[in-house]
Amino acid sequence: MDMRIYDIIRKKRDNHELSKLEIDFFVEKYSKGEIPDYQASALLMAIYLNKMNKQETVYLTEAMMNSGEVIDLSAIEGIKVDKHSTGGVGDKTTIALAPLVAACGAPVAKMSGRGLGHTGGTLDKLEAIPGFSIEMEAEKFIDSVNEHKIAVCGQTASIAVADKKMYALRDVTATVDNISLIAASIMCKKLASGANAILLDVKTGDGAFMKTLDDSFELAKAMVDIGNGMNRETIGMITDMDEPLGFAVGNSLEVIEAIETLKGNGPTDFVNLCETLGAYMLVLAKVASTYEEGVQKIKEAITSGSALDKLRVFIENQGGDKSIVDDYSLLPKASKIVPIKAEKSGYISKIEAEEVGVSAMILGAGRETKEDVLDLAAGIVLEKKVGDYVECGDILAYMHLNNENKFESARERFVKAYTIVDEKVEPKKLIYGVVTKDEVKKF
What we know:
The chain is an alpha+beta fold. Helices cover 44% and strands 16% of the residues. The protein has helices at 5-13, 20-31, 37-50, 54-65, 93-103, 122-126, 138-148, 161-172, 179-192, 213-229, 251-262, 268-284, 291-303, 306-317, 353-363, 407-417; strands at residues 81-85, 108-112, 150-154, 197-204, 233-240, 248-249, 336-341, 346-351, 379-382, 389-390, 395-401, 418-421, 431-435, 440-442.
């Protein structure tokens, strides 16, 4: 019997479960251009409205993963753990975490994407380092991880081909916001990238993709189910993105903050996040037998200086100038640094992360369209965070910019992002819970 996309659309419209064959048929034919956009949109809308169960979501992810190249990293010794963050403002985690984990002996073979919207991607941040190249042949990538335990490169265009096509369609048909479709889109790329185990950092709050805690736990659970359903040990953490992470927002500025963290001078929230994620990565890589032992190893990698040494090796191995580690003046620098002052006295109760991210984007630190060229020097360094007391006229942050035309609109947005109140406020917790294949633990 020949399969027809019409019947698959009708079946999902009537809220029935799709089979593996039907899902494979749709993904394969759509990625080859044999199913028109209007029929694909109808099916996506039916999925959006009627949702997919756990099994359908695993089938969809697997079909999307197999729609492009699936990378084989078996030539790399050890258990390769990939970390994925759903992204946020000031999320420079990979730049500090990859050398930390590698310094503890776990192989880090990471493929990253570019940033679109108010956040720069990890690749954009790394490219602020003079000479650093994110283009790597597969052989060099594998050799680098075997020799140095670390390599970060750009995702090849041939990974999860169906995802790019489907995402573009979901974007214009109001079908992005569905847990199964989001989970499948993220996981098909992670699984195609060849890792044995995956640690997910699912951000929650104002500056995150998922604004509410319930949605964030639901997304983490869906992705952990997919990973484990495809025999990759997967753990999800739910972490705060209600205010920016650390103090620096902007490519070159975030590189400096990541290096400072490896020197032992990092912002408390960022250091805690690196310790927590790092410890779980070491457990997944079987380099630490318990979470507590993992935290201990990560802390030692900072105090001993081994993580900083690993960062130098990592930069040099990918063509970058490792002397930036000791001389930040070699990084892109803004021509103007302008202080932004508090307009009233009191305690900071909220800093809207997304608005801070948009302010930084206006200054040139993020992209509004794929074609936008980033200003790697632009960005914002916060001086105060939630829970701090400020006097009227105190400096809230410094804006780093080269383009003065945009300054006023960036400043206005930034000042509005802060809420200052009379009563003392406790900072939010950083980590809300962890999801494993066996349980959902809320802290």
